[in-house]
Amino acid sequence: MKYYDKLIFEISKPGRKGYTLPANGYGRGLAELPEGLRRGEPLGLPEVSEPDVVRHYTNLSQMNFGVDTGFYPLGSCTMKYNPKINEEVAAMPGFIGLHPLQDGADGAKAVIEGLDKALAEITGMAKFTFEPCAGAHGELTGLMIMRSYHMRRGDTARTKVIVPDSAHGTNPASAAVCGLEVVEVKSNAAGLVDVEDLKPLLGSDIAGIMMTNPNTLGLFEKEIAEIASLVHGCGGLLYYDGANMNPLLGVVRPGDMGFDIMHLNLHKTFSTPHGGGGPRSGPVGVAAHLADLLPTIKVSGFHGNFGVMLRAYAYILMLGRQNVALAGKYATLSANYIKESLKDCYKLPIPSVCKHEFVFDGLVNDGSGPEREGATTLDVAKRLLDFGFHAPTIYFPLLFHQALMIEPTETESLETIDAFIGVMREIAAEAAADPAMLKAAPHCAPIRRPDETTAARQPILKYQP
Fold first, then answer.
1. 290-303, pLDDT tens digit by residue?
2. Between 377-386 and 414-433, two packed helices, what is the crossing angle to 10 degrees?
């Protein structure tokens, strides 16, 4: 372990300090605090010099991985590069100093109106609300609109929503939170919604269906027109999960496919920073016949995450109509290029043309064992860290036992993608020749293989001397 890989508490020395507080000019001291507000024992902060503090936090920042430090092919998350011009726009004094209750903020209103118009054009929806603060928040909002639509028609029996077995986990979770019963529709051998399995599920109790198109396997639902006709025919609505909207930009619009409600992830599709819990934005758009329901849904204070909206609007304006369409096409090209380059050494369960992402099912079996001498998807992911690449999404979707979902996005160069392909091939070769190399990976990270289950369920959130 390097010296500065230690916790800041571990390099603490009694009596050492790296600060000088200004003199108290108010004539009030600690003794004037009410007894009930005083700390009973010292806070227990580390005692270190200023250089130690600076090096500690700088070192922590270098341990973190993000789109500014390397290739981040995280499937279903669209971790594209965030242009810095977006940050400059969001930091403009006229915007950053606004208070949500301030009157006459015409510039901010114009941004919201302009973004609303742009997203409506891109998606084929009539109107958006920007209150939802994340994709799942948008899903809940959209489902509340769906329920409100049926309730105002007196159609109170519609308490079920259909969700494909390939869906994002937030879909059934959002439906449950909204008080809807989830009905699963199966995928067929091609990885698409099985229309024949869907038909018997439809009836007077169905509020609607939630779909992602392309779906979580990165495949375009070719029978979407028939699905829309069937669901509308039974009185239900179609909800579009916009998490996978990126490859469709400027090519296909959800509104034209028959969807009535949708959310977008501005922090994915429109290139604003995300991860670590936020900031995010999940605006919800609706078709014209639902537009009057948007103002009746109050799901957050004010207009949502305005800074994220600014970044997204700057991104759209920077690309323009022509280049927005190119973004989706390049994302699709990049994904298919990687898929075709690696399918001889990684299992490709569905060999058809994909959109923005695709799924491998572990390593190709070379006859030496079920998973190349026991090398698993987790081992591949850990070994990638040694080469400076973040791992793709692993063990999701649940349709495949050793799922490895790769989404390169349109912002990566051919050289970066070729380097990733080369490393993936090298790891596959290692799995056959020296599987222990993978089993012991990562070799260059500050920590190796923590017990992730215990860390998630029993986290240690403070330093114990």
1. 999 997 768 987 78
2. 120
For residue 336, how many other CB atoms are within 10 A of its CB? 17
- Domain residue spans of the chain: 3-63, 84-318, 328-455
Q: What is the pLDDT of residue 248?
A: 96
CATH level 2 (architecture), domain 84-318: 3-Layer(aba) Sandwich (3.40)
Taking the C-alpha atoms of residue 265 and residue 240, their distance in angstroms, rounded to an integer, is 12
**What b/e string do you get for 390-422 counting C-beta neighbours within 10 Å, with b at 16 or more?**
bbbbbebbebbebbbbbbbbbbbeeebbebbee
> Any residues with CB less than 8 A from the CB of 464 and at least 6 apart, and which?
none
Write the pLDDT tens digit of every residue in 399-436. Answer: 899 999 999 999 999 999 999 999 999 999 999 999 99
- pTM for the model stands at 0.90
- Cα separation, 204 vs 164, whole angstroms: 19
Q: Within a 10 A sphere around the Cβ of 134, how many other Cβ atoms?
A: 24
* Other Cβ atoms closer than 10 A to 329: 14
> Is it true that domain 328-455 has CATH number 3.20.20.110?
no
Residue type, 325: A
Q: For 206, left (φ over 0), alpha (ψ -120 to 50), or beta?
A: beta
Q: How many CB atoms lie within 10 A of CB 255?
A: 20
Same fold, 84-318 and 328-455: no
